[in-house]
Automatic annotation (TrEMBL):
Residues 23-357 form the DUF2264 domain. This is DUF2264 domain-containing protein. Signal peptide: none annotated. PANTHER family: LINALOOL DEHYDRATASE_ISOMERASE DOMAIN-CONTAINING PROTEIN. It comes from the Bacteria.
Amino acid sequence: MQPFRSPATPPEDRTLSPYTGHTRAHWEATADALLAAVAPYATEDQALYHLPGDRPSWSGRLSDGLEGYARTLLLAAFRRDEKALERYADGLAAGVSGVWPRIEHRGQPLVEAASVALALRLTRPLLWDRLSDGVRQRAAAWLGDALTAEPWPCNWELFPVTVGGFLQEIGYEPDDAREAVDRGLERIEQWYVGDGWYTDGDGRAFDYYNGWAMHLYPVLHAWLADDARLLDLYGGRLSAHLTDYARLFGADGAPLHQGRSLTYRFATTAPLWLGALTGRTPLPPGETRRLASGALRYFLDRGAVDDRGLLTLGWHGPDSAVLQGYSGPASPYWASKAFLGLLLPADHEVWTAPEEPGPAERADAVTPIAAPNWLLQCTRSDGVVRLHNHGSEDVRYDPHYSRLAYSTVTVPSPAYDNTVTVGGDPSRTSIEPLGVGEGWAASRHTAGEGVRVTSLVVARGAVEVRAHLVAGAAPGTPVRVTGWTPAQGLGAELLPGHNLSGDLTGVTADGPTLFTALARLTAEQDPVPLAEAVSVRVADPGEIRVSWTDGPEVRIRLGDGEVAVSAGQ
């Protein structure tokens, strides 16, 4: 697997960028290469981009062609490539003259309309203002259907907001446009849970949509509209989010492998750049660029771009396991959002400051994040980040949400890694957060009819103590516990504890039954034997005492849907 390098890619600069070697010139060269690679797949009128592949989305070929146009137009807009924008101007004229599908309720064209509108807003003097009056009128009318199209109740609510912001700016149906903006912003309020975190619609779907959608569109709208009140509101939320978000990247640049739409890959960097662009970030400029360039390099070095220069449907290279029904040949080009940083001038400190290490490179840390009820565990020795999930769930996209743990170096296994299987049922639904604290997180979930599992993890360094209290199961019900999936260069351990045999199975007793195990995922060579790093004693069926060899004792009281944790001396 050869790393992707454009012929125009400059030499690495290890003085300015000691961690990645990447500078602004590398981002520009990558954007130029991606734009050049898609150009041959445009239709003669430039209105559709039919990228190769035998996997259309469920929206069909015409919608997929529009997706190809819209998402690569967004890349050209961030790059401010006037020559490319001329091609897209021709495509726009043809598209709004009857080629593009209409924007309708809950249809994919509504998504792509947002990219078109945002690109037009960002490049207005270079593209929109150079169009003929007739093309502008037809384009505004095509976009105008987004003002009344009903979105799916999730991040889609922000697509009419994005279209409305542009149409309001150019004076097209200003009252309707303003109403669309206000309506969408009002609707996402019900999903804001505090500390910079949104759920992606009803329930507890926490994932990267926080960054590349829920924060991106409101903050960009406020910034482009020069609306100080909105920018303070949404920018403040973004800044709070970035404190946690920076911890989601491994030292090798990898984002956490959790959530859906992972084929958007380095779109994960968009909120990092957004914070710098709007001045709403707690991160030093050198750390912002280090995290963003690290993620870009991570994918470019691992086959994300094929030998034609096209982004593939997958994670590293092609990989159907990360795709959803809406994933079509051009879907990966929402990665264009990663190039938001090119809106910053070349002399901005985010481009000129020396790179600084990210959180996973600075120190070992076990960080509770209250809003999603997550526990983040990173180790400096190997740069691995692990997410203990005790609060995110989306049954539509299992296994991307339902597992107990995810990381920057593993992928969910079809064999149900990081799972408690009760009576042959590995499901984990109706997740109920029970809290997070210093070094721990807990939740309760349903596993089969009438069965409840209260789970807790306590972590220190790379070591984890996992406990599961199974209630509501008939006596003698088999229980199986799984841990991390082994991978090349990684040590994945799971040692049985209370009520588990050597094969990590056990059975329930008459009443709630406690099971414990020790786990570790590490790339460190010759770590301390897991059994020597921590000892676990069950004092009675609901009390656990965890003794770290290099830390205080942790006392845990675990009940059916209840948990109390305290640290001793």
